[in-house]
Design goal:
mainly alpha, elongated
Length: 109
């Protein structure tokens, strides 16, 4: 699979989708869950399966457990990005409000 076998990767996705889905449900709404799952697998492909290569059979965990760890990391990153976007929007709104207040104050003077 790591050698670029597309059929093997498709089998991996089919076999482990329920585990990945269970982790990503924690950070994606029902409407966005399929997109989050697609993003997870696409990110793995985009990084040339580096995270999959990091799985070490000698450490005692199964491939399913490793994929759940990777999905948990992806979920954590998604939640972090959502929080950052929310804070950025709040800052933009605060700046916009402050700008309107200073214009209104200048009009009063």
């Amino acid at each position: 699979m790591i050698g670029g076998d597309q059929e093997a990767f498709a089998e991996l996705m089919w076999r482990y989708d329920p585990l990945v889905r269970s982790q990503l449900k924690r950070c994606a709404s029902d409407e966005k869950l399929d997109v989050a799952i697609a993003d997870f697998w696409c990110a793995m492909i985009a990084e040339d399966l580096r995270s999959l290569r990091a799985w070490d059979t000698g450490r005692g965990g199964t491939l399913g457990q490793w994929l759940m760890v990777l999905a948990a990391y992806a979920c954590k990153e998604k939640l972090r990005q959502t929080r950052l976007a929310r804070v950025a929007a709040q800052l933009r709104n605060a700046r916009s409000d402050a700008g309107r207040e200073s214009v209104a104050a200048a009009d009063v003077d």
